[in-house]
């Protein structure tokens, strides 16, 4: 682990060398009657990318935990993989485009086996302060979606849920490393 103060602001942004594909991309799943396995293989799983899939240089890739914590730090992918890992099988779903009315969305779902480090373990190392109520996760993807430009993808998660044992910093999906089109090399997985 590296103390987060050792790096310039947003050092993890250097890891993103581009987007491929750039912009919005969707791959629809097969019809439900064609899905016949308990675990959905990658080839049958829907894919929705809103702003592009980040191409990552793993030499510069870090996960930084900072903000309302006692001990801010950064982890490389290699360091993350040395922490206790677990596997969780959970539904992976996409409600549909936030730009369409709910009655016009196609609900997409699959059943996935995720492997990674429980986020709870990483947060306990950082020791969140009592006033911390939310975790803000940031992706390396950037661009425009629905007429709104963003320099990164951000999502909030109540800290109470973030500390649930099933929430993972996942680096494998169905036993193989995450591809960039699946959020790799690491993605936050929040079952439920």
Please explain how this structure is put together.
- This protein has 192 residues and is mainly beta.
- It has one domain: Alpha-Beta Complex (Sulfite Oxidase, Chain A, domain 2).
- 8% of the residues lie in helices and 39% in strands.
- It contains three helices and 16 strands.
- Strand 11 and strand 12 (148-150) form a beta hairpin.
- The protein is globular and about 50 Å long.
- It starts with a strand and ends with a strand.
- Mean pLDDT is 85; it is low at 1-8.
Strand percent estimate: 35-45%
**CA(first)-CA(last) distance:** 30 Å
The CATH architecture can be named as: Alpha-Beta Complex
What gyration radius follows from the Cα positions, in whole Å? 17 Å
What's the tally of helices? 3
Given the C-alpha coordinates, what overall shape results?
globular
Low confidence ranges:
1-8
Class based on secondary structure composition and strand pairing: mainly beta
CATH fold descriptor: Sulfite Oxidase, Chain A, domain 2
Q: Which H/E pattern describes the elements?
A: EEEEEEEHEEHEEEEHEEE
Descriptive terms for the model:
192 residues, mainly beta, Sulfite Oxidase, Chain A, domain 2, three-stranded antiparallel β-sheet, 3 helices, 16 strands, 8% helix, globular, disordered N terminus
Quick structural summary:
By secondary structure, this protein is mainly beta. It has helices at 77-80, 119-126, 159-162, and strands spanning 2-3, 16-22, 25-27, 47-49, 52-56, 62-65, 73-76, 86-94, 108-118, 134-138, 143-145, 148-150, 154-158, 168-173, 176-177, 187-189. Strand 11 (143-145) and strand 12 form a beta hairpin.
């Amino acid at each position: 682990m590296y103390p987060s103060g050792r790096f310039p602001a947003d050092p993890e942004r250097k890891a993103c060398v581009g987007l491929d594909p750039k912009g919005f991309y969707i791959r629809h799943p097969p019809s439900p009657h064609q899905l016949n396995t308990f675990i959905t293989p990658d080839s049958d799983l829907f894919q929705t990318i809103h702003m592009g899939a980040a191409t990552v240089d793993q030499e510069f890739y870090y996960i930084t935990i900072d903000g309302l914590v006692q001990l801010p730090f950064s982890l490389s992918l290699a360091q993350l993989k040395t922490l206790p890992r677990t596997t969780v099988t959970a539904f992976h779903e996409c409600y549909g485009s936030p730009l369409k009315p709910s009655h016009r969305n196609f609900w997409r779902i699959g059943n996935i086996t995720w492997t990674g480090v429980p986020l709870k373990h990483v947060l306990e190392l950082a020791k969140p302060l009592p006033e911390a109520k939310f975790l803000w996760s940031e992706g390396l993807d950037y661009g425009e979606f629905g007429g709104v430009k963003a320099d990164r993808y951000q999502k909030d998660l109540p800290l109470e849920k973030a500390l649930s044992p099933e929430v993972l910093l996942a680096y494998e999906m169905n036993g193989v490393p995450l591809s960039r089109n699946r959020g790799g090399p690491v993605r936050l997985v929040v079952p439920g």
